């Protein structure tokens, strides 16, 4: 087939070396590296294939804009989401008095969320690997003293991941450990970003050009939130899954949801999937979960059996716990009177408040222009319909008060807590979509730091017209979810060992952002990719030693 997909029964007949569940940054990178090494690798992807040659794929715009008529009913809307590489799962948020249900804005399909990401691929600070010391009072957080790997151990894998993903940008002047990295230069700051960069520099701060996994071809729009139509976005699909399948013999089953793993006390024996209305039973020597930090714990919890009454690999009862998702606060700024910024321009990074005044907050990044109004109005349901009926009036208000500014995103680190978690839904969806339950509340530490961080930003931006566009307290923003299958040395307080293998299951690994013991305050993509390279070498050497 054009996208390299196998037939289902053919996949069942093969004894695979490695089955990789999920094709995002962790699974895509790991599978590519093992296929390069000659291992028989099968990617199993819940979403659609959006590799080149697949008809119906929506590129170059979010589906709400690309196919507005398809978003008038739930069925056609979810079909459009799937063809655009977007998730159609339903999250059931039971954190408050009333249950809320929503579809998270994350990726599902070849490349996972990396196919939609803004391409920021940035190393963590060295201090991020010793997280507990960075907070004045972590309270009842389970944040550890240290990750089981150090920055020095991760540095060569960071360098390899940067090369694999074609990362370009400037070093952060506040990080001496990254000064020697020597990334290729990104283009100069755009005219939209220059006034703010100059202002920040005059204030004695240290803006820099974000490291981006982008080729910047002519007319590059940086394609944040949608699939790239120009082949300039370097993501797990383009840089890993496509060559693994096309050049190194890996198999791909897209549109195939893993529903459970069948295991004895020490090993996964079979991977049970739903594929086009049928059940498949796949077998491999090693199983790697990379379905994302929401779906991976759900899969483990759903793999209960007599041997594993609390869920597979869950002797610690930590599977699904320690949910983190960053606190993201978009702020629109008009750097000059009458600003008319309409182009994508994710360029500026600012870490002067990452560690500030003895406390840790997070990063600030430019995020591009505000999306067109149709992104909100072209959705099914009563809210979208009401906004469409008010079309001219809503458009006038939107254009007057919300367009033309540059969006900055304040990204603050949240801490892990045992009571913030992903769980199985008690009422599975009736429309065929996967449903999962989350409980997530902010604790005193996050509330106080969040208030202080936003106060600092308001003071910094006080000379300009600004508008807050949302709140980091909103659980619907799950773009950087992590931590739900922590790795660590102690089986009582972690799910995975330092090599990302389940403590209790010899042939089971997890390489998506579930393994994070802390969320840090930066984009997770490069750390996920670097770690996947590290684990791939371990699997190749330890699991297939001749």
From TrEMBL:
Gene Ontology MF: a single term: flavin adenine dinucleotide binding
- Which residue intervals define the domain Glucose-methanol-choline oxidoreductase N-terminal in the entry? 99-327
InterPro entries associated with the record:
FAD/NAD-bd_sf, GMC_OxRdtase_N, GMC_OxRtase_C, P2Ox-like
Q: Which keywords does the record carry? A: FAD, Flavoprotein, Oxidoreductase
Q: Please name the Gene3D superfamilies in this protein's record.
A: FAD/NAD(P)-binding domain
Flavoprotein is among the record's keywords: yes
One matching Pfam family? GMC_oxred_N
Which domain of life does the protein's organism represent? Bacteria
Q: Does the keyword Oxidoreductase apply?
A: yes
The cofactor(s) it depends on are: FAD
Domain Glucose-methanol-choline oxidoreductase C-terminal, by residue range, is 416-532
Return the similarity comment. Belongs to the GMC oxidoreductase family.
Q: What is this protein called?
A: Glucose-methanol-choline oxidoreductase
Origin organism is Mycolicibacterium iranicum (Mycobacterium iranicum)
